[in-house]
Amino acid sequence: MMLLLWTLLACQTEGPQVTEPRTTGELVFRDPETCRDCHPDHVADWEGSMHAYAMTDPVFHALADVQAMDFTGKGGQFCTQCHSVPGFLSGETPVAFSEELQRWDQRTEGLSAVAQKGVSCDVCHSITEILEQRNARIALTPDGTVRGPIADPVETEAHASTHSPLHTTGEFCIGCHNVGIPFAESPLLVEKTGVEWLEYKALGGDKECQDCHMPARLGQAAVDGPERTIHAHTFVGVDTSLVDGFPDMERQEALVDAMLQSAVLMQVTADATSTTVQLTNQAGHSVPSGSTAERRMWVDVRLVRDRDQALIYSSGQLDKDGVLRDGTPDAAADFCTGGATTLDPLGDPDLWWFGAHIIGMCDEYTLFAHLANDDPEEHLLRPLATESRTYTFPSLDAEAHTLTVKLQFRAFLPQTVRAVQAHPQLSLPEGLLDKVKVRTMAESTTAITP
Ligand code: HEC
Ligand code: HEC
Ligand code: HEC
Ligand code: HEC
Ligand code: HEC
Fold it and tell me: Is residue 342 scored above 70 in pLDDT?
């Protein structure tokens, strides 16, 4: 607490501006349960997705509270304008000083069903215009009419339907998928999937977000409806629920593995002196994308002597604290006051990693995106890019060795979870870190005998 207050005084933190609610007419946001009878597949897909999880995530709850405290409420409902549009627009998710907790608090619990359910059906299906390609600058008309891709929808008593070509384009998604911290001068993007996708398009990429994240198939848009091209609503990315009992977790886990395995093409060549690893981005934006400060992709190289399994060369191993040695600070470094410890950052000089460091108020690396004060320092595999790296081995004995190269991914930095856990007024459920998996995106094994 002392450290945090000191930080704020030293850095004169101002909160980000929150855009005014922007809707036309009365707010009709229905609980997705009311759609289930007629759209069972859409609801079953969506309820296990990260869109449904956006207001359930304990890490979101904690980070939104850190934001509320750091800006002493001045940031207002910045976070819920994307994570819970119904809560934001109806004023259900205020940021206020809580006498009970003795701190600033972003309300995230005890909300109406639809405010608690994050990015739900009526949020997307009432979007009528993207005003600006960031920070939920989207125009909504939540009047009960659904806007969607079907030009000739069968009539139903449940709702009116309006054809919306916007819903079939990537532009539709990027009002939320570019996140800027709007300080006085220029808006600072800490998440820029939308910007990267436009870059991909400019380079000749031809896929919309929906092509990869809402794959099409033949089926019924509604029970008893005609057969049409319909779209998966699983919105698979890299994250899965950290909360036990969230719907559809097993399928989402498998879908995330498959998504990551489709993201990058890895080619490995090797001889007795070195190995060259080549990575080609096959996604529609950088890899990783979005919350890049939290994500890490890296190359794990191990050369083992077969006879005794001795490790002759390695790079990309986690340290004893389960941390990648990429120079990301430990929890304590987050405060401008110094006293930082950077968990053995130099222990792996050959490390090839992808992700980002956020630059904070005092030009330090910060773990909290809302404290960004300069463009992030990015290490990303850019859209459609191919990059390669050569790893040089020590000289080998004339006997059999095995080289294993893996492209690894982890969606969450242990440091951020620990920083929240170290906070005197916040907590996260025990065992959270154990649920954050290291996933293998690609793997190659080569026998090497000099
Ligand atoms: C009583 C059944 C029923 C209920 C309940 C229902 N719908 Fe529909 N919905 C339909 C039918 C029928 C269609 C048209 C399907 C077709 O033409 O293939 C449709 C179409 C749609 C479309 C596509 C519109 C277009 O033009 O592209 C969307 C989006 C949609 N519904 C969303 C919802 C949402 C969200 C809910 C819950 C808030 C909901 N529906 C509840 C029956 C229903
Ligand atoms: C993140 C935004 C988003 C959310 C949340 C969302 N949808 Fe959709 N939905 C879309 C988009 C975009 C399309 C059109 C995709 C295309 O045509 O490329 C679509 C299409 C549809 C269609 C038309 C048939 C089809 O599959 O193309 C129906 C019906 C529908 N959604 C129902 C729902 C229901 C019910 C929910 C909640 C359980 C829901 N949607 C949640 C974005 C969303
Ligand atoms: C109203 C804002 C909003 C719109 C519109 C929206 N998203 Fe999202 N999306 C979010 C938020 C917020 C999250 C993060 C949820 C979480 O993990 O807490 C998210 C998460 C995701 C994820 C999961 C990422 C991960 O970490 O695994 C994917 C994939 C995704 N969105 C794709 C899309 C696509 C494709 C569209 C357009 C069809 C779209 N989104 C439209 C707000 C939005
Ligand atoms: C050509 C296919 C493709 C297209 C087009 C595409 N994506 Fe992705 N997306 C992927 C793959 C593969 C991943 C997993 C690897 C990664 O994280 O980049 C992914 C990951 C994501 C994630 C999680 C990123 C992370 O690392 O945290 C989000 C969010 C997302 N996509 C949203 C979008 C949005 C929004 C669009 C359009 C503006 C889009 N995607 C276009 C393939 C695609
Ligand atoms: C402009 C829309 C927008 C705003 C505002 C926003 N987010 Fe998000 N948030 C997203 C999207 C989109 C994703 C998914 C990105 C990805 O998967 O890479 C996301 C993902 C997340 C995640 C889960 C991803 C992870 O790191 O594993 C957390 C936690 C989160 N946001 C916290 C916050 C907090 C705290 C705030 C306020 C300081 C905030 N968000 C404001 C759109 C937004």
Answer: no
Q: Count CB atoms within 10 A of the CB of residue 286.
A: 26
Among residues 109, 108, 119, which one has the least CA distance to residue 47?
119
Task: Tell whether the model's pLDDT for residue 28 goes beyond 60.
Answer: yes
The answer to whether 313 and 391 are in contact (CB under 8 A) is yes
Residue 182 Cα to chain centre, angstroms: 19
Position 328 confidence tier, pLDDT thresholds 50, 70, 90? confident
| Cα-to-centroid distance, 91 and ligand 2 (Å) | 25
Instruction: Evaluate: CB of 78 within 6 angstroms of ligand 4.
Output: no
Residues with CB under 6 A from ligand 3: 50-51, 53-54, 57, 60, 82-83, 85, 119, 123-124, 136, 172-173, 175-177, 209-210, 213, 235, 237-239
- Buried/exposed 198-210: b ≥16 CB within 10 Å, e otherwise: bbbeeeebeebbb
Q: Which residue has the tokens 């968990």?
A: 343
In this prediction, residues 337-362 reach a mean pLDDT of: 73
Q: Which of 61, 179, 252 to mutate to test the pocket of ligand 5 (most atoms within 8 A of CB)?
A: 179
pLDDT above 80 (res 336):
no
pLDDT of residue 10: 39
Half-sphere exposure of 72 (CA within 13 A, CB side): 9
Q: Is 439 in contact with 260 (CB distance < 8 Å)? A: yes
Residue 304 in tokens = 């083992």
User: Which pLDDT score is estimated for 419?
Assistant: 84
- In ligand 2, the atom with minimum distance to the C-alpha of 127 is 2
* Nearest C-alpha neighbor of 388 from the set 371, 405, 368: 405
Which of these, 78, 67, 79, lies nearest to 103 by C-alpha position?
A: 67
Residue 182: pLDDT band with limits 50, 70, 90: low
Q: According to the model, what pLDDT value does residue 14 have?
A: 61
